[in-house]
Known about the structure:
Blueprint (H helix, E strand, L loop, with lengths): L2 E7 L6 H15 L3 E7 L6 H11 L3 E6 L5 H11 L4 E4 L11 H9 L5 E5 L7 H19 L11 E4 H4 L12 H7 L5 E5 L15 H19 L3 H32 L11 H29 L8 E5 L2
Parallel strand pairs: 1-2, 1-4, 2-3, 5-7
Antiparallel strand pairs: 3-8, 4-6, 5-6
Helix pairs in contact: 5-8, 9-10
Amino acid sequence: MNLSIIIPLLNEQESLPELHAWIVKVMIANQYSYEVIFIDDGSTDNSWQTIETLSKEDPNVKGIRFFKNYGKSQALHAGFAKAQGDVIITMDADLQDSPEEIPELFKMVTEGNYDLVSGWKKKRYDHVVTKNLPSKLFNWAARKTSGVYLNDFNCGLKAYQQKVIKNIEVSGEMHRYIPVLAKNAGFGKIGEKVVQHQARKYGESKFGMSRFINGFLDLITIWFLSRYGKRPMHLFGALGVIMFIFGLLATGFIIVVKLIKLYSGMHPLLVTENPLFYIALTTMIIGTQLFLAGFLGEIILRSNTHSERYKIASEVNL
Length: 318
């Protein structure tokens, strides 16, 4: 199979028939063998009924329905697990991503040998203050932190080799950072393509300003996980040892000064009257706690078993 097109969605019943017809038109024109996997992330409208209708009309349409809204990352994870195509395309269901971009993305992966190609919505139709400017700041921070030089991490339109999506773990809200996850997994050939961004035709955006705050928090998380996720003791243990040694040296200094003053006939300060004593005590306690955090992190890492992150209510054509 040439292509698996994975489309997570939430309350997009109006756009689904039009999007499906558009995808089919592109697939037929390019003679691709394909599957379209819709993942209904807990919609409260008739999105699932629409998917069921489309699946009866077109056997290439497949669907996964969650019991409730688990988030885009979980939806992509479910779709990746079911995808069978040589090239996997992800796109949004709101008609802002154009299926006309798929042939060029497919060509870049198959002929250009890219592991991953990310779309870049260079010209956007979103609100400048609430979306465009925060997005530019977010993408700048993501580039500087991750070392993956993409202009648009948030673009849902991406193409992957199958081996990429089968070897990365998308969890939490990490769908924004799939290129970073791919790089950390050893897939270094990551490309970018300017894609057409279209104004929303139906409904309204499901993402508010909070996604940028969450995005920055996730960026810190993925930075930590990429460097210390497999060895937390290297960070917490090292910081703990440094702080404990500092406290120990400060304590030794206090004792030496007190003994010198005592044997030279001077009146020494009580240990509890010396401000350095409290600094030493605090750093030793914090150092011990950091060391224990690293130690516990190592134990948790070695005993961790992956729990189910979402529950599937029903499937069609799968």
